[in-house]
Amino acid sequence: MHAPRLAGAAFGLFALLSAQTPQYDLLIKGGTVIDPKNNRNALLDVAVAGGKIARVAADIPASQARRVADARGYYVTPGLIDIHAHVYAGTGDKVLAGDQSVYPDGFSFRTGVTTLVDAGTSGAVNFADFRDRVIVRAQTRVLAMLNIVGTGMGTLPESDTGGMSVENTIRVGKANPTLVVGIKTAHYTHKDWTAVERAVKAAEGLNVPVMVDFGNNHPERPIGTLFMEKLRPGDLYTHCFSGLRDEMVDGKLNAAMLQGRRRGILFDVGHGGGSFSWHVAHAAKAAGFWPDTISTDLHTGSMNAGMKDMATTMSKMLVLGMPLAQVIETSTWAAAKAIKRAELGHLTEGSEADVTVLSVDQGKFGYVDSFGARMNGNQKITAQLTVRAGRVVYDLNGISAPDWTTVPARRPRGPR
């Protein structure tokens, strides 16, 4: 006859303990959330639990979280997606397939990037090595566009059509569907369309986009033909502000760029070490032509030159006049859609908690293009906090850390 009373007491104790136990692992509080997919641009808090976005709302009590990040004055965005990078490192090759590629974790989180897309550094022949050497070991989410040349960049000239197997590329892509998000062709020097045509065939077999680095400029291969006849809507033209392939004609943006956009071609910054010109960028601005995606073309040659990193590349577009919300969209949700990964690039409740906190600093800054020319600006985007799958992986100024005076002293471990 006393069982119900005992059960009731146990329930009451459980309720008390539940009320005292924080609901969330992390609460990013007080920032302006810019989440283009969900049409959010407002002061909101973002709560994370179990590696997922648990709640996005105003005034979530700090007491409900084990850890609180103070994002007041900052912008809270989905984790940044860099869809053109080179991270197949460690091969020992003299060019992009090794010595100029970088291991992802050393360069991603500190600039707010949670997803890197390797753009064609590997192909069907050596993708397994790239996967096992780099991708599965990285904390960064690393995806890949397979080079239509089987051995990727550097180990075989990318103009060698004998190394371009559509069948092998499709086979490897189908064997790795969670990792392969596109096909890349780059640096093709001949006057014909073989590289582009085979890349498109492989992409059709995998239902993924093609990214084209158009290589040498040839009148026999004008970009107008590329956009209107060779590529498909949804395919990507990277290095869109390079000026190396007639993107600008007589000081104005080539009309072929506008025509390509109307057809559905996507235009990617792909800054790189030699593919971003202020002259072309200003011509594009004058034409109202902003990029569809912002990316770095990260490698040792670009990161140590004018490009620097993802946040700097975004800053360049901001100081050029691109609205901040659009800069963030092209670096998150638009990039996710371009690679057909709709689970990425947003802060939807239940989605994996990849989150970036950015500051937009005011001051005097100089931005250098790929040809050594500086443009001054008064704004700079800086990554303050990066969260990957719910875990804080980078915190520039300790906004998620407790003040030292609240932490008990610990005995030093001694020399390591």
Description:
The protein has 416 residues and is an alpha/beta fold. The chain has a domain at 80-346: Metal-dependent hydrolases (TIM Barrel, Alpha-Beta Barrel). 25% of the residues lie in helices and 26% in strands. It contains 11 helices and 17 strands. The protein has helices at 3-20, 127-133, 166-175, 194-206, 223-230, 255-263, 278-286, 300-303, 310-320, 324-330, 333-338; strands at 26-35, 40-49, 52-57, 68-70, 75-78, 80-85, 113-123, 141-147, 180-185, 210-212, 236-237, 248-249, 252-253, 266-267, 355-368, 374-388, 391-395. Helix 3 (166-175) packs parallel to helix 4 (194-206). The protein is globular and about 70 Å long. Residues 1-18 have low confidence and may be disordered.
Structural class: alpha/beta
Number of DSSP helical runs = 11
CATH architecture of the domain at 80-346: Alpha-Beta Barrel
Q: What fraction strand? A: 25-35%
CATH level-1 class of the domain at 80-346: Alpha Beta
Q: How many E strands?
A: 17
- Helical content, roughly? 10-25%
Question: Which sequence of SSEs, written as H and E, runs from N to C?
Answer: HEEEEEEEHEHEHEHEEEHEHHHHHEEE
- CATH homologous superfamily designation of the domain at 80-346: Metal-dependent hydrolases
Q: What general form does the structure show? A: globular
Radius of gyration over alpha carbons? Answer: 24 Å
Q: Mean of the pLDDT scores?
A: 93
Pick out the low-confidence regions: 1-18
Largest β-sheet summary: 8 strands, mixed
Write the CATH fold name of the domain at 80-346: TIM Barrel
**Could you tell me how far the N terminus lies from the C terminus, measured between alpha carbons in angstroms?**
63 Å
